[in-house]
Amino acid sequence: YLLRRLIGVGIGIGFLILVVLAFRGCLQAREERGMKNYVTDVGTIMQESEQSGKDFFDAVESPDNSSITLQNQISSLRGASESLYDRAQKIGVPGQMDDAQSAAILSLRLRRDALDTISQSVGPAAARAETTDAIQAIQDKMGSLYASDILWSQVAVPEIDDVLQDEQVEAQDL
Predict the structure, then answer these.
(1) DSSP conformation class of 91
(2) Among 19, 117, 123, 163, which residue has the fewest nearby CB atoms (within 10 Å)?
(3) Up-side HSE of residue 18: CA atoms within 13 Å toward CB?
(4) What are phi and psi of 91, to 5 degrees?
């Protein structure tokens, strides 16, 4: 009778250990999926932002654009940038990616704000008189665009890569 109880207790403990291990495995898989989803989401947003940047420079370099056309194109890009910024703020962020997310958000905010100021300054900068302030505003915001690229490529991406490496998670390249 005692032997049956010991066997029953042993089987119960073995079953409990299996349940704990299975639960832990599910939590680890969920955490890994969360990181992969985050990298995919932020990567997509930043690729779209980089494309907007290329579109911006194409518009600025186009000799066919009048100041009004250029202002409208930049305003449109600013709207797209606002949308990307909003999407980035709504991404589910794993706790380990908080620093990278902060850098990505700041990068997108710099881009959005730069495009806003530039779109408002293009008309006055193209005017015949009193253009110094508008030109200076554009010049300052071009620096913000450069800074946003630095934040993304030299702060956010390495931080994401470090977390993925530390957690031994394979995800898409950024």
Answers:
(1) S
(2) 19
(3) 6
(4) -65, 140
- Listing DSSP states for 101-146 in one string gives HHHHHHHHHHHHHHHHHHHHHHHHHHSSSS-HHHHHHHHHHHHHHH
| pTM: predicted TM-score of the whole model, two decimal places | 0.82
90 burial level (CB within 10 Å; 0-12, 13-18, 19+) = exposed
Alpha carbon distance 160, 156 (integer Å): 6
Q: Report the Cα–Cα distance between both ends of the chain, in Å, rounded.
A: 64
pLDDT digits (tens, 9 = 90+) for 18-64: 888 888 777 677 788 999 999 999 999 999 999 999 999 999 998 88
- How far apart (Å, rounded) are the C-alpha atoms in residues 47 and 134? 29
For the stretch 61-72, what's the b/e string if a residue is b when 16 or more beta carbons lie within 10 angstroms of its beta carbon? Answer: eeeebeeeebbe
